Amino acid sequence: MVERRGLFPNGIELTDHERTRIRARGVRIVEDPVRGIVVAEDRLRAVELANGQLVPRAALFVGPRFVPNDTLLARMGCDIGPDGFVTTDRTGRTSLPGIWAAGNVADPRAQVITAAGSGSAAAIAINGYLLEQDVEAAVAAQASTGAAFSPAMERAVSMITLAANRSDPRAPLS
After folding, report:
1. In a 3-state reduction of DSSP, which class is residue 137?
2. What is the CA radius of gyration of the chain?
3. 6-7 vs 28-29, strand pairing mode
4. Is this model's pTM higher than 0.85 or not?
5. Which of 11, 52, 87, 161 could form an S-S bond across to 81 if both were Cys, CB 3.0 to 4.6 Å?
6. Where would I find the beta strands (DSSP E) of the chain?
7. CATH architecture assignment, domain 6-56
8. What is the mean pLDDT of each run of 10 residues along the chain (174 residues)?
9. 61-69 — which CB contacts under 8 Å span 24+ positions?
10. Helix, strand, coil proportions of the chain in percent (round to 5)?
């Protein structure tokens, strides 16, 4: 049986809804900031609060604080969501064209396998994006020079080549 004695939010803002649900499970919310823990003979003995009060404990769970390593993405101007993480679509595309993000920088719940999967999805999307960029560039290049090799262009090139190779360039081509 788990003994639910207390929750030390230690600066985390809890909503009224969260407080109601926590208390409904018999958990006391201790609002005072935590200064440290008291360990004696290699065992946890208490949680020490900032006001000096010691709250006896034999076990303690410390939740991780997820902080994304997104300085570059934030400086570039990628949108950051209310949770503090870079916002992306399902392929990892950010709010900036040509920029993707994957793993824990975009999803705080992503464990290693999930982060690797999102990296793979982003890589596939990036490959598609780069291919599309190449196709668009080729279409634009072709549009600016006309048809690259049309029958009319082939005839004109052939006429020029044949004329250059004749002994009398003024003679009509047949």
Report:
1. helix
2. 34
3. parallel
4. no
5. 87
6. 6-7, 28-29, 34-40, 43-49, 54-56
7. 3-Layer(bba) Sandwich (3.50)
8. 70 91 91 94 94 91 84 96 93 96 91 94 95 89 70 77 64 60
9. 66/104, 66/108, 68/104, 68/105, 68/106, 68/108, 69/104, 69/105
10. 40, 15, 45
- Residue with tokens 């870079």, as numbered in its chain: 86
Nearest-angstrom CA–CA distance, 97 and 6: 47
**pLDDT tens figures, 100-125:** 999 999 998 888 999 999 999 999 99
Query: How far apart (Å, rounded) are the C-alpha atoms in residues 121 and 131?
Result: 16
| Residue whose token pair is 């994957």 | 102
Burial of 78 (0-12, 13-18, 19+ CB in 10 A): buried
Find all residues with CB under 8 Å of 88, minimum gap 6, and list them.
94, 100, 101, 102, 106
Domain ranges of the chain: 6-56, 71-130
